[in-house]
Design a protein that fits this description.
There is one protein chain. The protein is mainly α. It is built from 20 helices and no strands. It starts with 9 loop residues before the first helix and ends in a 15-residue tail after the last helix. It is found in: Membrane.
Length: 450
Amino acid sequence: MAIPPPTPGPEAAAFEGRIMRKVGLRLIPFLVLCYFIAYVDRVNVGFAALTMNRDLGLSTAAFGLGGGLFFVAYVLFEVPSNLAMERVGARIWIARIMITWGLVGIGSAFVTGPVSFAVARFFLGAAEAGFFPGVILYLTYWFPKAYRARIVAMFMVAIPLSSFFGSPLSALLLTLDGAGSLHGWQWLLIAEAVPAVLLGLGALALLPSRPAEATFLSRDERVWLTDRLDTERRAAEAASPDHAHGLAAVRSVLTSGRLWILAVIYAGSSATSNTLSLWMPQILKGFGLSNLETGLLNMIPFGIASVFMIVWGLRADRSGERIWSTALPLGLTSVSFALTLLTGSLWVTLVLLSLVLLGNYAIKGPFFALATETLPPAQTAAGIAAINTLAHLGTGAITSLIGLLREQTGSFPVALLPLCALTGLGCVMVFWLGRKGPPVGDIRSSPSAA
């Protein structure tokens, strides 16, 4: 039987706040660290490329193709991975993903040319597939919808932090060239992949799958949190006639127009995150900087974005508003991309790229709060994975296209124009989605919203 919190008022708010603080402190720092390492392993090849491309004879187009193949594998294995997590449990499946990608990342240090580089990137994408949507789904098991924008923003701050801290670290690891008969880029790939294996083992001990297993909560707290989440789930199910599960849920979400709109919206943000993490070291290096100078300057836009995405996520939850909170940052990203065409200055380019990333990372929390509130509960696992998967189709294509455009035109601003167009389209589609009416779980109409 559910044990209610104190009578509504200050005591009830304190009771709820205590539970949420306990859950947040136990889960979020560890998950942020895991995603930090995941993203470092995904994009550190951007810094490795400063010397690796020469050693392996990789052209700009071949490097872009390898970057795109990562997302091909990511797309192929993402939805099956999220469905598997629902079956075997979050703790075991997240640990499996991390250990696998760590081992593949270590193996990537021993590629010998364009073919083995492409194969290694494909297998890394297959290994990491499912981690991000799996964690987004996992967070819905623990946090009521009124908390999700800020929680997702706190989790996803690992993306800009991975470049903020990873940039100078990667630049320093490149200086180990020749140590132990290995190139600097080999040391970089190995050193930044080992933590994934260790964290995967740690996940087995530290991540309970559901609130009912949370020994860090009291019995009353576990029962209250479970009841709160079940109440929200039942309310969302009552608002949606679709109760499909498993493969039926996959078929159902893929025929949902709203899901395809969400996927296109997120495609611009996903492509921007991954493309700039991969290519920005080479963009800055093109201004004649040393590897260390490149690493230090690369920190600046990601550091600014890390702070602002938390502020924006908190604002989105306090207002309960999702449409403008998602659309405005996308518009800023698109306009800033366009303005890079008008300058050849390093410092102006750095300011514009900072604005690009500030807008791009700010949308993460509000967008995934919007997505999880939009999808019927029975479709959440398949829906989150499908959005991420479909968005990464665009990411993979654009990553390869940027390599080709850069090689053909010699201009990174021109090569980045597809990102300008995609984020601009996403901004327009957010407003169109808002005109279609509130999502299934709009927190502004929810009596349980905090």
